[in-house]
Each structure stands twice: as C-alpha cells, then as structure tokens.
Amino acid sequence: MTLNRVNSDTASTIAGNLKANGNIAIVNPNGVLFEGTSKVDVNGLIATTADIDNRDFMAGKLAFTKPGNPNAKIINRGTITAKEAGLIGLVAPHVENSGIITAKLGKVQLASGNSFMVDLYGDGLYEIGVSDAVTAQLVANTGSINAEGGTIALTAAQGRDIVNSLITIEGELKAPTIRQQGGKIIIGGADTVILSGTLDVSSGSGKGGSVDARARKTMTADATIKADGATGGGDVMIWSDDHTDLSGSITATGGDGFVETSGKNTLSIGDTTRVTTRGPKDTTGLWLLDPQDFTIGTGGDISVATLQTNLAGGDITIESSGGGTAGSGDIIITDALAWASNRLTLTAARDVLVNNVVTVSGTGALTVNTATTNGADTGVSGGALKMDLDSSGFNGRIDYSA
C-alpha cells in the first residue's frame, strides 16, 4: 500500500484522474473531497481522516488509530473504481457518496468512525471505532455503489457519547450474484437508519444474496429491495432495537426466500408495503414479522387489505415476543380477514384475540400458536385463542372453505 499523508488545515480536494496498479491510502485529518470531475482507478483505496503510526505502516500493520478532526468529512462526488476483488473504504465521522463507486467481487465500505484496522485480502475494514470527541455521525448515499458478487457495507461505529448517528440511503446499492458468488449488503450501527433507495442482491442464474439492515433505535424503510434468484430467493433482514416503520417493496422470489422485518418494541407496516417470496410451481418462501405485540385492522400495525395483498405473495408468520416496553405479546385481529392462498401463522407470546370473522378458502391455511403450543392448525394451549362475544353472539370466528 502507498500512503499519501496530507498535513493541512483544510480538506484535500481531488478533481482529476488518479490511477495506480496498487493500493492507495489518502490520509487527511481534516477530510478529503473527490469532486464530480475526479476519476479514481486503483487496485484498492482507503480515504480517511484517521492517521497511522509510521512504525505500524512500515511493519505492514494497517492500524489507522489516530483520530482526526471530529467534524471532518470524506465526500465522493466522482467515480471510484477498484480492480477485481479490491477494497474501497471511506472512513470519517461524516461520509457521503453522491458519485459512482465500483468494486467487482470486492468490498465497498463507507464507515462513520475515526479509528480502524485494514485487512486488504480478507475482512476489509474492521475494529472500526469512534472517539468521545465525535458528537454526530453520518453515512449518506445518494449515488451508486456497485459490488457484483461482493460486499457493500454502510456502518457507524458505536461510541459512548454520540449525540446522534444516522445512515441514509437514497441512491443505489447493487451487489448481484456473479460466478455463483452471492452479494451482500450490510447496514448498521447507527441510531437511525433511513432506507429509501434501491438495494439489489438479485441473481439471474443462481440464488439471491443477502441484505442485513439494522438500527439501534429507529428504522424507516420505504426502499425497493431485491433478493430474487433463479434457483432460490435470498435473505432480507430489516431490524431495529426500538421501532421499525416499513412501507417499501421487498422481493425474494425463486423459492425459499426469507424476509424478516422486526421492531424490538414496535413494528408498523404501511399500506404501500409489498413483500413477495413466492417461487416456481406454487413454492413459497416466508415473511416473518416479530414485534412485541401486533394488531391487524384499522388503526393497527397492519391493515387487513395490506395483509391480504401480501398473503398472495407468500407465507407470512407474525410472531409476538412480549416482555418489552411496548406490549404484552398479544396478536389481535379487529377487522374481517379473508384470503385464499398461502399460510398465515400467528404465534403469540400470550394470546391471539379474534374480534372479527377470519375466512380461509382455496389453498389458504391458518396456524395459530399461543404460549407453548407447537403449531397445530388453530390448536391452542398455554395461552388462549379468544373469540369476541356479545349479546348477539360471536363477533369473532374462523371459517374454512374449499
């Protein structure tokens, strides 16, 4: 690796061409700006505000452990390309990409932090840390990042005194399968994650790749996420430690695709949400929703219309956990619900309450589990399956028809 250290009171600006057959590190504690006119073509690139000790560098230990300006930025508006299987890493408290970054079969990592280690031929960037001097972190992508058969990671290091950490994605992240090598997109570490772009790990010939997006507090996802595969759907995880708000499109078609959308306390599914895991010849994958508790119906966590529409796209499991700050572990159906294909599984930490008519027809199926039951169709033990009853009779019931 060639080390380019800039000792300046201002950020470095790269506006032209930078070409190299090897790996390049650009270090400026006050930041680096790649202008829209810049074109970088290298084996691998590290651009960071964190410095490295001379002795470590000469010994081949790529430990960037000297924090720079806590408000410094690495910004790319140009085109950065790594050779096949190369690494591109942009690391600073504030990182933005509005340009084009490409690393076929390689790794692209945008990380908010000011210390890290580098493994050029294995893990990429690791042990990413942030000092107490940093009070705000941002990773933002409005451009295009491409890593066919590789890994794209947008992360924020976790510090003790951070006031706010945010990851926003409005552009494109693409890591499709190539040469039977599935792509990966990893997003996490920030308090708040906002997904509103396109995340694509699909495959035209093999199995879809994986998307793993997590937030420490709040996740807002109205992105288009594709994990489709010709021989099998991929895996998609949307998770937060507090609240998740989902309103986008997720597809993991091809058979055995898996989508999990979780809010450790609360989970809200918007009316525009579309999740599809169906495969060939009537095979299907699974969409798992696992909040604290969950209400199906008007004013609830998902509308009946949205649930019915998405049941046409594959099996759905709603699994409440209970025991948190937001709920008791109940699953409640308040409006009339009907569907004719695929299986709906309701697994409650406490009770399943049916306060309206549930109609299952055609090839549709229903499984209800509460507390300690083991998955018998509408069989209940431990907790309770409760039907609403008033003076006129049962308001809640379950009807089956062929």
Index terms:
single chain; 402 residues; 15-stranded parallel beta sheet; 3% helix; 50% strand; secreted; Filamentous haemagglutinin FhaB/tRNA nuclease CdiA-like TPS domain-containing protein; signal
How would the blueprint of this fold be written?
Blueprint: E1 2-5, E2 12-14, E3 17-19, E4 23-27, E5 32-34, E6 39-42, E7 44-48, H1 54-58, E8 63-64, E9 73-76, E10 79-82, E11 87-92, E12 94-97, E13 100-102, E14 107-112, E15 115-119, E16 124-129, E17 136-141, E18 144-146, E19 151-156, E20 164-169, E21 172-174, E22 184-188, E23 192-195, E24 198-200, E25 210-215, E26 218-221, E27 224-226, E28 235-240, E29 243-246, E30 249-251, E31 258-263, E32 266-269, E33 274-276, E34 286-289, E35 294-296, H2 304-311, E36 315-319, E37 331-333, E38 337-348, E39 351-354, E40 357-370, E41 384-387, E42 389-390, E43 393-394, E44 397-400
Parallel strand pairs: 1-4, 2-5, 3-6, 4-7, 5-9, 6-10, 7-11, 9-12, 10-13, 11-14, 12-17, 13-18, 14-19, 17-20, 18-21, 19-22, 20-23, 21-24, 22-25, 23-26, 24-27, 25-28, 26-29, 27-30, 28-31, 29-32, 30-33, 31-34, 34-36, 35-37, 36-38, 37-39, 38-40, 39-41, 40-44
Antiparallel strand pairs: 8-15, 15-16, 42-43
